[in-house]
Design brief:
This protein is mainly α and 236 residues long. The chain is built from twelve helices and no strands. The protein has two domains: 1-56, Arc Repressor Mutant, subunit A (Orthogonal Bundle); 67-230, Tetracycline Repressor, domain 2. The protein is elongated, with a radius of gyration of 21 Å.
């Protein structure tokens, strides 16, 4: 890459980052529905046409912010889980779920963007899927590893109710994508565990525990342990 080309690429990357940084602040004050490319351009001191050269529409900018958010939580979960011994399947899950909660509490606006109320009129493109599955892919890897090692608690797994045929059919794609070799009832319970985890995080973040749960650290740790055990995960 020659020097002028390198400088142009660097300048473009820097302006792209600035646009997303300003857009992130606007999300915090105006919400996704109020995001405006013109307002972002105005704060940056640019003509709106300049911003449109980087993001052709509000939805394209939203998509970039959503992908960044999914990658951020995915990286946080992967990093926390990676630090735990591979044979400690329950410990790996507790590290991963704790990282979800910490990320959400540290960055509530981005959490609300990807896990809150859908943005009216916005349809996420398919290229967000790989980013969206990074975090849940960590739970899937834990379950796959535990199943392959025959380390799932049979008492817990044995309580998993038989699935309706239609649900087994629904789960086929998830098994192919994330849970190869794992029995459908276990995959169904993994989805329940993942959903419940985000339910707890959302309740805490959006004030539903007010005057109900005061020691929220202890409550989350206790609940996450119970959820992991309901999936058959154990520590050595």
């Amino acid at each position: 890459m020659d020097e002028p080309t390198g400088k142009r690429a660097k300048a473009r990357a820097e302006l792209t980052a600035s646009i997303k940084e300003v857009a992130g602040r606007h999300l915090a004050t105006d919400g996704p529905s109020g995001l405006s490319l013109r307002a972002v351009a105005r704060e940056l001191g640019l003509a709106s046409s300049a911003v449109y050269r980087y993001f052709a529409s509000r939805d394209e900018l939203l998509t970039a912010l959503i992908i960044d958010a999914y990658d951020s939580i995915g990286e946080a979960v992967e990093t926390a889980e990676r630090a735990v011994d591979r044979a400690d399947h329950l410990g790996r899950w507790l590290a991963a779920s704790g990282a979800v909660r910490r990320w959400a509490l540290d960055d509530p606006n981005r959490y609300a963007l990807v896990y809150g109320t859908p943005v009216p009129g916005y349809q996420a493109p398919v290229d967000t899927i790989a980013h969206a599955t990074r975090a849940v892919g960590v739970l899937a890897a834990i379950v796959v590893d535990a199943a392959a090692a025959d380390a799932l608690d049979p008492a817990a797994v044995g309580t998993t109710a038989p699935l309706p045929p239609s649900v087994e059919q629904d789960l086929a794609a998830a098994i192919d994508l994330l849970f190869p070799g794992v029995a459908p009832p276990v995959v169904a319970q993994a989805i329940v565990v993942w959903s419940a985890t985000f339910g707890m995080v959302s309740f805490e973040l959006f004030g539903q525990y007010q005057n109900v749960i005061f020691d929220r650290d202890a409550f989350f740790a206790h609940s996450a342990t119970g959820l992991g055990r309901s999936l058959g995960l154990r520590s050595p």
